[in-house]
Amino acid sequence: MELTIASWNVNSIRARLSHVLTWLDDRKPDVLLLQETKVENGLFPREPFEERGMHVLASGQKALNGVAVVSRHHPELLGETLSSGFLADQRRVLRVRIMGITLMDVYVPNGGDTSGERFADKLRFLEELAREAGLSSQERYMLMAGDFNVAPGEDDVTDAKVMDGRLCFHPEERTRFESILRTGLTDLFRAFNPDGKAYSWWDYREGSFRRNAGMRLDHILVSPALAAAARSCTIDREPRSWDRPSDHAPVSAVFELPAME
Amino acid sequence: MELTIASWNVNSIRARLSHVLTWLDDRKPDVLLLQETKVENGLFPREPFEERGMHVLASGQKALNGVAVVSRHHPELLGETLSSGFLADQRRVLRVRIMGITLMDVYVPNGGDTSGERFADKLRFLEELAREAGLSSQERYMLMAGDFNVAPGEDDVTDAKVMDGRLCFHPEERTRFESILRTGLTDLFRAFNPDGKAYSWWDYREGSFRRNAGMRLDHILVSPALAAAARSCTIDREPRSWDRPSDHAPVSAVFELPAME
DNA sequence: GCGCACTGCG
DNA sequence: CGCAGTGCGC
Q1: If pLDDT is split at 50, 70 and 90, which confidence band does A260 have?
Q2: B204 touches strand C (CB under 7 A)
Q3: Å from B251 (CA) to C5 (C1')?
Q4: Which of A50, A111, B184, B254 has a CA between 20 and 30 Å from the CA of residue A70?
């Protein structure tokens, strides 16, 4: 059976609802992992998704952060925090099981600037993700996706020399992202696109999208069995061109899996 | 020659620009008096009006109040305050001369509630308008229009008994509105519609427009010679039904005048 | 209920 | 630049 799993930092699900529904109706992913929903669970707009036959699991808070899983198949909730409990007061993680796949929806802290406590928290959060991936390494089908706020490679920014040391392309961040991959996960977009610059985020300011001055911050990382089952991984720039868009574009992967319960 | 003069409290010209342009293109008034433009002069969107061959005179401030005159013919600026200077720090008055007609665009203070200093200011402002009308009583063609924040008669509210004493239908306000008319001005809408309930404002809350629970707060008052020249005076409820409307509807009057310089 | 201002965040 | 939040005016 074919399964499409997508990830999208929507920068407010309420502000972006029409975009998300339009995209959902067009692309029809089986699972959509959302980040920066920026809404408490009680105010999450569940109905339009449920009308489309999708389940919704939301873990949100006021104004900041917030993640959610929209899924055609029933999702089993595994947890709403890192298993260490780090930054548990911020809604940045949703762990679910869908159709025998363990999924982790993550929104890594932006970090503020490369000095200071919030950057330290970001690095620690990335370390925790590596640990988390290690804990799940016995799982056959494991997927960790979301907004990592790290551009891992030189082709994930416009100019590596200029960007070197800057937020989201700092060696300390890239090293920690590498550690996540070293647990055995595959950066699926890069696996399908081994070279060539590609971005998933463009700043709202300075006409960044028009100039295609972006970064690849949104990733789908998968276990070896899922990597083998993957048929494609793409970034859909179209919604970024719509009126009042999210600053992030959705990333999607298609898998061909043996039929599961 | 025929001349159409309209008045509209737009509740932010920037938020309502598309509505105002759509209405302008459809109804093509010669003069449009705006209230609650809520924008400083430098940020007033002049271009779309000028592209349509209209002149713009704006007298605005940040966030609150603000009046403007949009006119097919060149307007001569007479003043931006009451001649007494009362409440001169608030942009609520624009006095202009267009085609030999003296026009006064007014936005009367809402008053807050019927106790307190702001209500006293509202009453005083209405008294000043009567004085102002008296000062202009020698003018052959004089028009005073805008948002008076007073429903003068029992047919200008849904239920006079229920509304009696409430803001915008308080005896003290209605008396002062009467004083304005007693200088010789005619309430043109009432002249053409001597009976029957009609409103120009509906609260955004509680589905007031759907229930037609409104008040007639926006008026076109004219000197005897203009009253004699008037051919119609109407309230256009249509824009109030549009998406994200102003809470006020435009009021228009058509005059048949001898050709003037 | 719907504007505006301001501030924090990214 | 564009989301939130809060406070205020109408």
Answers
A1: low
A2: yes
A3: 30
A4: A111
Residue ranges with strand state E in chain B: 2-9, 31-35, 55-59, 67-71, 76-79, 93-98, 101-107, 142-147, 186-187, 201-202, 214-215, 218-222, 230-235, 251-256
Q: In this structure, is the CB of residue A61 within 7 Å of any atom belonging to strand C?
A: no
Distance from residue A247 (CA) to nucleotide C5 (C1'), in Å? 25
**Strand D closer than 7 A to residue A12 Cβ:** yes
CB A138: neighbour CB atoms within 10 A?
8
- For nucleotide C6, the protein residue with its alpha carbon nearest to C1' is B63
Could you give the 3-state DSSP secondary structure of residue A195? coil
Q: Is the pTM of this model over 0.85?
A: yes
The three-state secondary structure class of B6 is: strand
Count of positions (residues) in chain B: 261
Buried b (16+ CB within 10 A) or exposed e, A149-184: bbbbbebbbbeeeebeeebbbbebbbebbebbbebb
B114: left (phi over 0), alpha (psi -120 to 50) or beta: alpha
Nucleotide with C1' nearest the B247 CA: C2
> Are the CB atoms for A184 and A133 separated by under 8 Å?
yes
How confident is residue B260, by pLDDT bands cut at 50, 70 and 90? low
Instruction: Tell me the nt nearest to A38, Cα to C1'.
Output: D4
Beta bridge partners of A67: A35, A59
The answer to whether some atom of strand C lies closer than 7 Å to the beta carbon of B19 is no
Region of A167 (left: φ > 0; alpha: ψ -120 to 50; beta: rest) is beta
Q: Is the CB of A79 under 7 A from strand C?
A: no
Q: What residue type is B201 in one-letter code?
A: W
pLDDT, tens only, B99-119: 999 999 999 999 999 999 999
The answer to whether B142 touches B199, Cβ cutoff 8 Å, is no
Residue nearest to nucleotide D9 (CA to C1'): B64
A40, two tokens: 């408490």
Closest Cα partner for B54 from B79, B81, B25? B25
> CA(B224)–C1'(D3) in Å?
54
**What angle is formed at CA B145 by the lines to CA B144 and CA B151, rounded to 5 degrees?**
115
Q: How far apart are CA A82 and CA A129, in angstroms?
A: 8
> Stretch A185-204: mean pLDDT, rounded?
97
Residue at minimum CA to C1' distance from nucleotide C5 = B63
Closest among A203, A121, A125 to A158, alpha carbons compared: A203
Task: Locate B206 and state its tokens.
Answer: 């509680």
Q: Residue A146: beta bridge partners? A: A106, A219
Q: Contact A71/A85 with Cβ under 8 angstroms?
A: no
The C-alpha angle with vertex B64 and arms to B59 and B68, in degrees rounded to 5, equals 25
